[in-house]
Amino acid sequence: MYYFFTQAHDGWRYLVILALVVAVAVYLVNWLRGRTWSQLERRIGLYTVIVVDIQLLFGLILWGMAASMGIVGANAARTLEHPFTMLIAIALLHIGWIWTKKADEAVRLRNGSLTFIIVVLLVLAGLTRVGGIL
Ligand code: HEM
């Protein structure tokens, strides 16, 4: 079971990276071009949050199983630094997504760009604690 969730969590990372990179690219390009917020950005933002939340679920299950097996802390980078970095990244994603949706339309693309840039950097940092990005 632990193996199954490790594999699911491991593989899902590619969707997380893809979703975040697409979100950064679309938000940043449209913000810098002076475009206004549209359904495209709303959908991309929403799907990115969903993809990351599914990874959060896999991660929490894995962490809970690791704790019950007594292996949390045995490898601090994998079982402590990685989960805490990712939890901070995901909390910032949710706060930033609300900040983006509730902002005036004129600044939504700016807020979204800043949110996704910070989150992608944190996620990449968290991935280095478990052996790398790819
Ligand atoms: C965007 C979010 C995340 C990504 C992209 C991600 C990605 C990864 C990857 C690639 C691994 C290595 C898997 C392997 O060695 O086969 C891993 C391990 C792990 N992740 Fe995450 N993770 C994320 C969030 C989380 C969260 C939020 C938690 C817990 C709250 C978590 C808990 C763990 C644990 C405990 C391991 C170690 C598994 C082991 O070595 O036995 N992850 N993660």
Q: Structural class of the helices, strands and pairings?
A: mainly alpha
Please tally the β strands and state the result: 0
Unique ligands:
protoporphyrin IX containing FE
The percent of residues in helical segments reads over 70%
Question: Which radius of gyration do the C-alpha atoms yield?
Answer: 16 Å
**What's the number of helices?**
4
C-alpha geometry: elongated
Distance from N terminus to C terminus (CA atoms, Å) equals: 24 Å
Q: Major beta sheet, specifics?
A: none
Number of domains: 1
Poorly predicted segments: none
Order of helices and strands: HHHH
| Strand residues, percent | under 5%
| Overall pLDDT metric | 97
Question: How is this structure best described in words?
Answer:
- By secondary structure, the chain is mainly alpha-helical.
- It has one domain (2-128).
- It has 4 helices and no strands.
- α1 packs antiparallel against α2, α1 (2-32) runs antiparallel to α4 and α3 runs antiparallel to α4 (105-128).
- It is elongated.
- The two termini are 24 Å apart.
- Bound molecules: protoporphyrin IX containing FE.
- Residues 6, 9-10, 13, 16, 52, 55-56, 59-60, 62-63, 66, 78-79, 82-83, 86-87, 90, 123, 127, 130 line the site of protoporphyrin IX containing FE.
